[in-house]
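Q: Glyoxylase-like metal-dependent hydrolase (Beta-lactamase superfamily II), please. Structure only.
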Amino acid sequence: MSLKFSVGDLTIHRIIEQETSFVPALEMLPGLTAEVLAENRAWMRQAKALDEQDVLLLCFQSYVVKTPHHTILIDSCIGNDKPRPRPKWNMKTDDTYLRGLGAAGFAVEDIDFVMCTHLHVDHVGWNTRLENGRWVPTFPKARYVFARQEFDHWTEQNAKAQVAPFADSVLPVVEAGRHELVGNDHEIGDHVRILPTPGHTPGHIAVTMGRGKDDAVFSGDLMHSPLQTLYPELSIKFDVDPAAAAKTRRSFLERYCDTDTLCCTAHFPSPSVGKIRRKGNAFVCESI
Ligand SMILES: [Zn+2]
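A: Structure for Glyoxylase-like metal-dependent hydrolase (Beta-lactamase superfamily II):
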């Protein structure tokens, strides 16, 4: 399995926490019909995107990117010791994630920036870890970059009723003074930019990297299954604004279609990374 990619002057590592069955395809994608699922079942099973019970298989991972100047971690996965409704995530204590980070050659002190494409539970988990009964930043030297619009959205939600991942994985970073709230014009050095991609959440961003051009793009949750490149109109039930998510998905896929940009998805099955190519009136993410 490919865990490391090089493109331009970037080195990209995948840190996998789980690759597992998630939610039945017909439930996760409310616009999906049994007929369309049947037409796509064979290749999806082959690609390990669908299991024998028609449940979607997803990868949960971070990307760690070395630019010539910085080491940047994108999306911090699920985390440990956190009460979560999903049994596979609830109060887990395994060392898979930190072991994966170590195997890629990184200590937690090596991360200069943590960036979150959005503030959902499986993208903020390792922002913090439990130390003497308190949530502390896992990456002690990192600046944590949050999109201001996304942060404001969850601040508002959390004021109405506590949002656990925001409370245990985002606010402790703020309390430790390690965060930066940024607009969509924010850049880090000459290698890292933000691409607003609203829909899944209101302030969802993709992160583009490369000097002067997008050698790689980290697409976060603007899509979850390779089925959505073929049917960009299919939004998932967790998309806050399904119509906006569908529009964002098609324009993102069109933007990178037939370019050399490496598309690094958050949740596609391994290898999770590929180049967007046209197929009929839609797209595929072709492994490299
Ligand atoms: Zn996600």
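A: Brief note, in case it's useful. The two ends are 12 Å apart (CA to CA).
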